[in-house]
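Quick start: what a row looks like.
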Amino acid sequence: MLLLLNNESALSTTEQRFAEWIRWSPDQPGVVLMNVQIPDRAHRTRQLDALIWTPQRCITLELKGFRTRQDGVLRVPPNGPWRMADGRPAALYGNDDDHNPMDQVHANTMATKNWLEQTTGVRCAVHGLILVLLLPGQDVPGLDAPQRPPMTDIIVEDFDVFRYYLDRVSDQPIDWTSDRIAPLIDTLGLRHLYGPHTDLATAMGEPAPPPAVVER
């Protein structure tokens, strides 16, 4: 995967850890754009922790880290804050009575979908992923989330599950290519984050073009 970091110095500890996950996945096809602002309605912007393109999917990623250590199963109700098995609210950033990680990823997914469709003029499917990273020594052995919105997933601190999440649809038709992604990154003003177009093509697993034939 090709990791593109916008304003790397502003990454949180949780975001830095996720960036390391991407660096551990050089053979996984995809492009990951971290810490990016996308156009939203009413001439505003919306911040995304990460925007991931694989050949089959576009994914908005919401990263969540614990403020304090809490052990036990993480429970995700249909509404309200996420809670631990003992009933206490999970000490996750952005998890309270007014909003929760599911609300955030849903809003970001809809904003990304609107932006993509307005920019490309083509209908797009956008998936949402919440990745919860734990504190050292923290034990969250399970996730209780039986009712989730469509096209939305949650992963709790498991690198192998994250890799599987990206790879499990690799046999589906290709929807995203370097030619589709490059203009979108350029529109965001982030062309400087990657080198030649072949960097994107290689990251997306596209075959190299045949060498030019020189006639003599």
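That is the whole record. The radius of gyration is 18 Å. Helices lie at 13-23, 101-120, 159-167, 178-187, 197-203.
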